[in-house]
Design goal:
The protein has four helices and two strands, in the order E-E-H-H-H-H. It is of the alpha+beta class. The chain has one domain. Strand 1 and strand 2 form a beta hairpin.
Length: 66
């Protein structure tokens, strides 16, 4: 599924293709399920994108790579 989010840091609109379902999105946004429980199949950076719209590249530009 293609997900579009606006970064809370830059205000830039970002898109990411993620292996998620509508049910997972509903569990998170409508039912209040914890992010890690709603999307256990996603990496931490993919979950961060859903939550804040911040991409891994944006984090690396701000704070450097791990």
């Amino acid at each position: 599924m293609l997900v579009e989010r606006t970064s809370v840091i830059s205000g830039q609109v970002n898109m990411m293709s993620l292996p998620i379902t509508v049910d997972q999105l509903e569990n998170y946004y409508l039912k209040g399920m914890l992010l890690q429980d709603a999307f256990p199949n996603l990496s931490p950076s993919q979950r961060e994108f859903i939550k804040t719209g911040i991409t891994a590249k944006e984090w690396n530009n701000l704070y450097g790579e791990e």
